[in-house]
Every structure is written in structure tokens, then in C-alpha cells.
Amino acid sequence: MLYNLFEYLDTFNFPGAGLFHYISFRAGLALITSLIVSMVFGKRLIRQLQKQQIGETVRDLGLEGQMSKSGTPTMGGLIILAAILIPTLLFARLENIYVITMLIATVWLGAIGFIDDYIKVFKKNKAGLAGKFKVVGQVGVAIIVGCILYFHPDVVVHKKVDANYTLQSGEKFVTKMHIDEDSSLESKWIETDDMTTTIPFVKNNEFNYNWLVGDWMGTWGWLLFIPVVIVIVVFISNGANLTDGLDGLATGTSAIIGISLAVLAYVSTNVHFADYLDVMYIPGAEEMVIFISTFVGACIGFLWYNSYPAQVFMGDTGSLAIGGIIAVFAIAIRKELLIPILCGVFIIENVSVMIQVGWFKYTKKKSGEGRRVFLMAPLHHHYQKKGMHEAKIVSRFWIVAILLAVVTIVTLKVR
């Protein structure tokens, strides 16, 4: 909204209006606004939740300090959603297809989480929304996102190719956008609408989904791409949900991941950085930097109230949304194959539950007595059972997340 207003004012040479053309300026404003919204709105929402006695019902699992959390306000994910949506609507270009895609994913997954929390809190049903309905909702938004990114004409990439490269179907040269006319043309740039993505640690690190189905014309590549989007969105969204078991764990980890995605998005949407780092340039996706800035600000602002001892829990309203946002964002900037590294904490939490449940069922079927690999799953509860304080567990998981984020960013140069 404000972008369009100041773009109009700039035609009258209004002082400072031209600043809104700079991504870095709008990203900074979005981050600050997100922090303010989350901290101001958060305080009021917590009071309202306490007044309405909307608190977490805690099952006694024998974990240290667990029962003291009973009654802590939940559904705090509304704070995160507000802190993302308000600055995005204010500072991003709302006609941009990438912004539209992220808004759809945020609202959709936030709504699924909200329904789940509503059933738990107001209907007094601890199970919440049935798992199959959650998955259907996640699959639904993944299909929409996959179709937008694969079929929409504004979703294109620029790739550097050899000077003698022969154009394929759906491609065109855009070299003048990247190289001065006087420069020696040792390479050229092409624009293509295929779903090329990035493979980490590989020199010629571009991978096209169409190749796996033997479809060089790009007609049937969606048959592979959309299922991949579904798997990533469901897995990472649920991973964030499972990670949200200790004060500040999911929030802090998501903020770290968000900062890494902001770096990846910025270099992928800046012509000069894309050329220098020899990565794909994604025109139009620079608005994603605005969105991810609001995401980081929302997570950090929420952490003000969610850090140990938590004054509010995000609930599924927040955890399903932040996991889905991370997944969709990584896919949109063609970095989904970096998710196993960047979202390592979410993945290990998810895998620990799968291992625990799978092994228990297998041993019970074989011997009649179920056995466990971990003292308790997800993994953070295993360390709680070993007597480690939750603040220490959270700090160490954050350190792991930082290390994984650094490795992810390093892949821009290490091939």
C-alpha cells in the first residue's frame, strides 16, 4: 500500500519518496514494523488471553517443570501472523506474484493451525483437529503453491550460459540486462520459465525437474514438481510443529532460518550478486526480501514473550504457519534442496518421532513388547528426560541451527 502511495508522491518530487524504490530500505522498515507490531500487539493479546482464561492444558509426561506451564496462554501464533501480514501489506508490492503466493500460504496454514487450537481450547478436545484434516489442508496449499510457481508466466529465472548456447523452447536471451554492451561476451544470460533449482556443493549446480521425466519441452514436469512441493511443505510444517515443545525453541530456530533465507533471497534477486556468485537471478522475487524481513521480525518479537519462561505459546496457529512459510519461501527462491541442511533441526525432530513410532510398532509386532530408541520423542524431550534443563537444550539447538545456517550460506561459493 505505502509503496504505491510513495511511488505516486515521487512523481511530484516529494522528499524521501524515492527511498521506497530501494529493497533494503523497505526491508528495514518492514523488519522494524514487524518487531513493533509483535511486541505491542503481543502484550495486549496476552492480557486478553489471560482474561479469557485461554490457556494450555498440559498432560503430565513426567518432564521437569512441565506442569508449571499449565494455564500459560496459547494461540500466540496470532501475534506472529499479525506481525507478518501487516508490514507485508504496508511495504510490499501486493501485485507481485511471489508476495501473493506467500500471503496465501501464510493465511491458509495459519487458519489450519487456528482451527486446531480453537478445538483444543474452546471445545476442550486435547486431540484438536484430526491429523488427516491437517494433512489435507497442507496438501491443498502445497498444490496451489506448486501450480502458481510452475505455471504462472511471471515466475521465471535468468541463467548464465556459454556464449555459443542454443536456445531451447520457451527461452530467450536477456544478456543486455546483465552485461554492458561493450563487455566481452564470454557468456550469455537466458530467461526461462522452467523450474530449475539449485543443488548444493556441485559446480554446475542447476537441476531441472523436467529432466527426470524426460520432458525437455517442459510440458509434464509439474507431475514431479508438485509432489515434491507437497512433501516439503507437509514435512517442514509438521517439523516446526513438533519442534515447538520448549520455550523459544521453534521461534528462535525459525528466526535463524529466516535470516539465512533473507541472505539467499537477496543475492538471488540482485543482478550484480547473482553474476558474481554465478547463481540464478530471479526477477520479481526481490519483494520476497520484504516478506522474509517481516518473518524474522515477527519471530524475534514473539521470542520476547516466548523465551524461557514463556508468557505465551504460539500453538499450532504459529508453528504450522512458520514451517509452511519456510518451506514455500525456499521453493520460491529455488533453494528447496538446501532444506535438509538449513532446516536440519526441524528434520531431526520429525525423524526422531518417525524412528520412535516405527521401532516401537516393529518390536511390539515381533516380540509383543514395544521398545523405544529415545527416552521420549521428539528429540528435545529425550534430553529433558536425561535431566538437562530446557533453557540449555534450547540454547544448544539454536547453536546447531546457526551452524547449519552458516553451512547453507557457504554453499553459495563452495562447490
Write the layout of secondary structure elements.
Elements: H1 2-10, H2 23-51, H3 77-91, H4 97-122, H5 131-151, E1 157-162, E2 172-173, E3 187-192, E4 196-198, E5 206-208, H6 209-212, H7 222-243, H8 249-268, H9 271-277, H10 287-306, H11 315-332, H12 339-342, H13 344-367, H14 379-385, H15 390-410
Helix pairs in contact: 2-3, 2-10, 3-4, 3-10, 3-11, 4-5, 4-11, 5-7, 7-11, 7-13, 8-10, 8-11, 8-15
Describe this structure in words.
The chain is 60% helix and 5% strand. Strand 4 and strand 5 form a beta hairpin. By secondary structure, it is mostly helical. A three-stranded antiparallel beta sheet has the order 1-3-2, with no helix packed on it. Strands 4-5 form a two-stranded antiparallel sheet.
Strand residue percentage: under 5%
Number of strands: 5
> What form results from the Cα inertia axes?
globular
**How far is the first residue's CA from the last residue's CA?**
41 Å
Q: Work out the radius of gyration.
A: 23 Å
Helix content: 55-70%
Can you give the mean pLDDT? 88
Structural class of the secondary structure composition?
mainly alpha
User: Which spans of ≥5 residues are poorly predicted at pLDDT below 50?
Assistant: none
Strand/helix succession: HHHHHEEEEEHHHHHHHHHH
Count of helix runs: 15
Biggest sheet, in brief? 3 strands, antiparallel
